[in-house]
Amino acid sequence: MAHSSIYQISFEPLHKDEWITPDDFYQGYDAMFEYATDLDKDERRDALKHLTKILKGVCTRKGHTLTIVNMEKFWKRWNNAIRKQLDVVKENPLKNQEELRRVEYTYEMTHKGVGDLFYIDNWNNCADYFNSFCNMCRDKGEGTKLYIGGIVGFHW
User: Fold this and answer.
1) Which of 102, 111, 117, 121: CA 20 to 30 A from 95?
2) What are the tens digits of pLDDT across the range 96-105?
3) d(CA 33, CA 19)
4) Residue 28 structural domain
C-alpha cells in the first residue's frame, strides 16, 4: 500500500483549527507509517469521494456530515464473502493457499478499509483501522451524526 488517508471523525462539528495535521502523528523510522502530509483542496475532495465509497453500507455522507445507517446489509455482505472463500479453503487447505490469500484480502479490503485509517475524537484518539470505525458505528447506532474534520495523507 503506497498512499492512504487518515480521516478525522468527530461527534461534534469541528472548526478548521481543530482538524488533525501531519504533526499530530509519529512518523518515520519504527513508526506505523513513513510520513504524513497535508492534502491540497483537490486531494481533499478526492479523499472525500473515496471515503463515501468505502463507507457504503455503513454511513451516508452529505458534505462533511456522516449519518450511520442500518449496517445489517454491510455485515451480511462481509460475512458472506469471508464464508464463501473459507468454504473453498476447507475443502483442501494445502491446495488452496491462493484462496486463503483471498480471504485475507477480503478482510483487508472490506473490513479494514483499504489501508485508510480513522482518527475518532473522544473515542480512540489515535489513527485506527476501518473495523474500529465500524464497531463505533455499531455502538452508536443508526441515525447518529458524525462529522468529518481533517484528512491527512500518509505513506506506509
Assistant:
1) 111
2) 667 666 666 6
3) 19
4) 3-10+21-155
